[in-house]
């Protein structure tokens, strides 16, 4: 994004700069002490530009956020949000001030109206895109671990390879931990992360159904037929209660259905299969680590060690990025189908397949540039 901003500035088109900023996450520095005050929003900061002598409001784009600090955090703002709370006596917005990717934007009252219109047209920051920090880890064990969380990073339009000051923003990171994760503090975070590392949240019945097929395949020397698998699952769950048996039958049906769809769409080889859904817990765990770092429930050293551990666990469960990605997608789909029905899962399937193809095919994807083992 920063390169696109530089190009827009070089082109001299002020409207193009505003349109680009309307599709970009912008950040304002806030003291954590102020960010933690309930119901109060700190006023926009102001600086004096050394060259022009003008007073400006400074903001940063996602790729230019500084290193993590325990007491300084960032609030995300949109160009429209800035226009609504703009200080009456300031006439310039300074984007990435003092960096090679700086832009100074006219903030006179007439221009603020253009900001609002651009914000309305844009629909907010882009999602469904692969974003990479060229200054972040690109190779090696830490990059490998961070890449496990790329599905969610693409979904939300966030940089995948950063352990830094914010995942999305300080307030959003804390809110995401509270819901859906139920994490209001550090102790709960460590407990939940431990559960994710042990694959305890992905679903024991689904894993048992897949493990049954994997065990049978090893004994037979080939992937069992649907009938052979079904019979083996019936034996495995014979002593379980009726709810578990019904859940196992649904899991077998859903997994078979989505494997057939993956094959039809070219995502899974004709003789391929998904053997574990561990990727869903491991991939989400990376994002929980990044959220906890942004929420100040963790620190960079601890977060890095956790990400490295998650990378080790993933390499023990899968043999390639493609297998990991399909395991992640399968878990996302079977849970959505189970919760909301197969029709409701169709949009999720299309979105998931698009993300899978981005990660497998995009030449800038970590799945194309980082060796699995």
Structure description:
This protein has 17 helices and six strands. It is of the alpha+beta class. Strands 1, 2, 3, 4, 5 and 6 form a six-stranded mixed β-sheet that branches. A hairpin with a 7-residue loop joins strand 5 (92-95) and strand 6 (103-106). Helix 1 packs antiparallel against helix 2 (14-22) and helix 13 runs antiparallel to helix 14. The mean pLDDT is 95.
Question: What is the gist of this entry?
Answer:
This protein is of the alpha+beta class. The protein has helices at 2-11, 14-22, 32-35, 79-84, 109-122, 141-147, 150-156, 170-178, 186-197, 204-220, 226-236, 242-264, 278-294, 300-317, 321-340, 342-361, 366-369, and strands spanning 26-31, 47-48, 55-61, 72-77, 92-95, 103-106.
Give the tags.
56% helix, alpha+beta, 17 helices
List the helices and strands and how they pair.
Blueprint: H1 2-11, H2 14-22, E1 26-31, H3 32-35, E2 47-48, E3 55-61, E4 72-77, H4 79-84, E5 92-95, E6 103-106, H5 109-122, H6 141-147, H7 150-156, H8 170-178, H9 186-197, H10 204-220, H11 226-236, H12 242-264, H13 278-294, H14 300-317, H15 321-340, H16 342-361, H17 366-369
Parallel strand pairs: 3-5
Antiparallel strand pairs: 1-3, 1-4, 2-3, 5-6
Helix pairs in contact: 1-2, 2-5, 6-14, 7-16, 8-13, 9-13, 10-11, 10-12, 11-12, 12-15, 13-14, 13-15, 15-16
